[in-house]
Amino acid sequence: MPSTGESGSVFSTIVVAELDRLPKLVREQVNAAVSQRKNEELALLQRSISAIPEASAALKAKGKSAAEVIAAAVDDDGALLLITTTAI
Fold first, then answer.
1. How far is CA 43 from the centre of its chain?
2. Confidence grade of residue 21 (pLDDT, cut at 50, 70, 90)
3. Domain count, the chain
4. Which of 5, 19, 25, 82 has its C-alpha lying 20 to 30 A from 35's C-alpha?
5. Claim: this prediction has a pTM higher than 0.85
6. Residue 2: is its pLDDT beyond 50?
7. Which band of pLDDT confidence, cut at 50, 70 and 90, is reported for residue 86?
C-alpha cells in the first residue's frame, strides 16, 4: 500500500540504503551529486525527509535518522530511495 507523506506525495515503497553498500558506480554518482550540493540544500532535504512520517519510520527501522540522509530519489514507480551515510 502506498505511503502518503505530509507533503501529499505518495510513495509505493521506501528503501533505505547505506552509501558504502551500494555498487561502486552508484557510489561515485552519488558522491559526485553530493559534492555539488550546498549545505543549505542538504539541510532542506533532511528537514523534508523528517516531515514524512513513513520515511522517518523507515529510517528508524534501519537505525538511522534524517540527519544521516545525504541523497534521495523517487523512481518512475513511486519508490523513494534514501541514501544514508554515517560519515557526515
1. 12
2. very high
3. 1
4. 5
5. no
6. no
7. confident
